[in-house]
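Backbones bend. Shown next:

***
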Amino acid sequence: MPMRLDGELMVIGLKDVAKLVGICIISFCAVFVCTMFLSYNIDITSIQDKITIAQVQIFYDAQILTSKVVSAVSGGCLLITSVIMLLFYIKHYIDTHKKELGILKALGYSNLKIAKHFWIFGLSVLIGTLTGFLAAYCFMPTFYGTQNTDNILPEIEIHFHLSLFFFLVILPTILFSIISIIYACLKLKKPTLNLLKDIMTVSSKQLKYKKEVPSDLPFLNELQKNTLRQKKTLVFFIIFASFCFSAMTQMSFSMDELASELMGIMIMLIGIILACTTLFLAITTVIRGNIKTIAMMKIFGYSKKECSKAILGGYRPMAYIGFILGTIYQYMLLKIMVTFVFRDMENIPDYKFDFPMMCVCLIFFIILYELVLYCYSNKIKNISIKEIMLEN
């Protein structure tokens, strides 16, 4: 996907575009959930005048509040994650294309003139939000039916809401494109010579930290700690991936008395998709960012297991921290739902923490995470030293 700068060609390769799949998927999930619940929230108000029974009014109010809570929590969380992921991709693109960008600056192009073409990163949001919006409307007949399985409320008709299309598809695309341009402009504020020579600036805080690090650490342990320090954003993605898996899977099994079976399945699928996508992108970026280090380790005789432990092993505790946070999050959210949203409804039991289910989800998470690490350990084994040497 090329970008032209007044005759000059600035190319975003297929690998760079493929990395934006993560933003597409997160945007899809956010808009898919928000479109269904917000549309239902708007459509259900059309039957308010038909409600005359107190118990039906309680159910109606609970449905309205549920839609608002789910849209705000899921949409807000995924929005923040999408922004962080977008900024990470822009930074990664600039870091891997420093010399090309330095040449453009040397030819006289200003930071803003180069940065304004980064609007193309906002297209990933457009693709994700648009497909999520369309998929939600395709799924709405089933969703509306499951929301009223006991036929407590009168029949609710599905309507297309142009305002939702603007706020969930058009506006996010514009905002993300603007964010891309502003952030790219800020990241390009480096001396042209630094970009051409690929000079890395080190802050005083980093220098102070390096002085405090013991110099007698074993090489593999020092490399593991250094990988974590250099890839702080990837630490967030690893935590977020395990957070999604933990929260969504436990929530889907725990809300069988609060929502329909279909809702539980939908929540689980979204959680697994987000977890696998984020985990895949994070670990792939870690390996690509340390590919030269891995090659040198292999030259000096380090085994596949030692390379994997040094590069990927440090992220394992972060994954378990994310799982714990997800467990706490889903418990607090469901507790709030039962205590406040469904407090006036009959036959709603008090929600208690399901420890056996947490153990089952933890076992599945460990299997999934360790399987991913094993697959990428084999990928490390297959890295060709010759190809890396030829690239340089």
Observations:
- The chain is about 75% helix and 0% strand.
- The radius of gyration is 24 Å.
- The beta strands are 2-5, 8-11.
- Residues 1-11, 200-216 have pLDDT under 50 and may be disordered.
